[in-house]
Amino acid sequence: xxxFQNELKLMLKSKGTGKTMxxxxxxxxxxxxxxxxxxxxxxxxxxxxxxxALLALxxxxxxAVFIEQLHNSPSEFIPQEVQFLLGDLSKVPTKYLQFATAIxxxxxxxxxxxxxxxxxxxxxxxxxxxxYYVASFLEALRLKEETAIxxxxxxxxxxxxxxxxxxxxxxxxxxxxxxxxxxxxxxxSLFVAPVLAAIGVPTVTHGIFDIGPKHxxxxxxxxxxxxxxxxxxxxxxxxxxxxxxxxxxxxxxxxSCPTLFDMVETRNLMLKRPMLSTLEKLLLPIKxxxxxxxxxxxxxxxxxxxxxxxxxxxxxxxxxxxxxGLEGSIQLALDRKTPIVTPKHPSTAxxxxxxxxxxxxxxxxxxxxxxxxxxxxxxxxxxxxxxSSWASVSIIxxxxxxxxxxxxxxxxxxxxxxxxxxxxxxxxxxWQRGISV
Length: 437
Known about the structure:
Layout: H1 3-15, H2 27-38, H3 44-56, H4 61-72, H5 74-77, H6 94-107, H7 114-124, H8 131-144, H9 148-161, E1 165-166, E2 171-175, H10 192-198, E3 203-207, H11 219-226, H12 234-242, E4 248-252, H13 253-256, H14 258-261, H15 264-270, H16 275-279, E5 286-287, E6 291-297, H17 303-312, E7 319-323, E8 338-341, E9 352-353, H18 373-384, H19 390-407, H20 411-423, H21 426-436
């Protein structure tokens, strides 16, 4: 990455976090900022995202002085393309004027009506819309905090854009993991898929190889090391799921939702996690003929209720479990209780599950800044081979929680069946056939 682009992204990383978590820019950063904002070596997407954050968040006194300078002499500080953020729409091409106009109230913290949502989200997913407009729109939405109407409207448009297959399997469990991966803990929830498959529960997971802001360890990175065909078409993924000898599958976003896959570069240049990061994992590329069970997660407390609203708004979902596990994922912590939301345990309740309730050991996960996809693969394979370890307990816990909370199985029985699939080699066999078929 060129140094100017990297320099601006570092500023954006600290500034654009949110209303309460972000840091103000220092005097030295603000002195450097005009040079970066006019540089041709910095992406317009990153510029637009940072300017949106500066205008949307409550400024510190030094930032307020800089913002006043922007308004007084915009051409000296920012490119013509993003001057619309200061209220000057005279230079916006006519075909983009409606969308550019719609961004300004969002920057001021106003929310959209249903009609505005319907129109504006169509613009977001229009491939002809310049990405710097899209970045400003998504950043402004995130910083003001999306309303239920905004979230659900965007979700429904993405559901319509998703290539989806209805499986012949009566029940399908969808492991809906965050697409940007893990950065501090080995990623193991992928290995729950062949475990559930081994005990007769068809399971699908999905994702993308790499995306920000984490750029972490993802199922795709682990599967690539194992030799899995990541870009298999949906029909091939369906065949694996419906093959009782396999019973699990992975679907890449490139196959299931090209509309979102084509926005990867824009999102990486934004650096931040827009609402798309929440919604993309809930798009159900393969559903069951009778029942589709979604197991997903939330990171920040306000999203506990938001996730439940989204899942309730999707008629394709029969049952769901929302967890707040390691790194805001479905991977359950073994050293503490994990918040849980299901139709039986609504988001307004304080419900938890604990490893000791399943008769499992209470141990902390290994935590390291040096985790790799290879490490996660090796830990997962060792667990599937019957080796007793933190990894095997983690896999048993999540699989048993799904069986008990979503399918009504007794917890002790669920743990015994899951553990047996590891010890008798059936989970490993389902994994291996899934990789090779």
